[in-house]
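Expect chain and fold; see below:
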Amino acid sequence: MSLVLDPAAQDLLFREARTANTFTDEPVTEEQVQAIYDLVKYGPTAFNQSPLRITLVRSDDARERLVQHMAEGNQAKTAAAPLVAILSADNEFHEELPALLPHFPQAKDLFFSERPTREGAAALNASLQAAYFIIGVRAAGLAAGPMTGLDFEGVRKEFLDDDHTPLMVVNIGKPGEDAWYPRSPRLAFDDVVTTV
């Protein structure tokens, strides 16, 4: 059985898409970022909680501060990418639930009154949204370089606050020269899927 999605789109989003390690200097515009968000905001989260928050690092000063918190192997590519996004989980997402879940506004207090519960839900659902974000970057014809090699606490203190937990940093732009490492193997269907 074939997929409904056009094979070229399948390639763009999955088969040919890779984590980029170099980028051209072509800028990523606000309009492109808006278009990415306008697509990926429709991805599902539990209770429509939508806890992902995106911090765009555009200024030279902010870029220098971020690079200091990246692992050594990620510093040069973060310094050179046209745009860098810090993806974080908003642990106070429940404040938006009455607007995001109007048919069940009591979910805010019924399920998410305790901070540890919110932190777990925010981490899981914002991570899911981060995956949508990467696919959205690809759908915009750009390459994404998601990274978790960083000082998370340093990034939180430098760019966020106590109510936000950093998840990853994503370099974004048009792929540059030698942008791709060789593709690593993937698990076979039978190694992953079990029918019971």
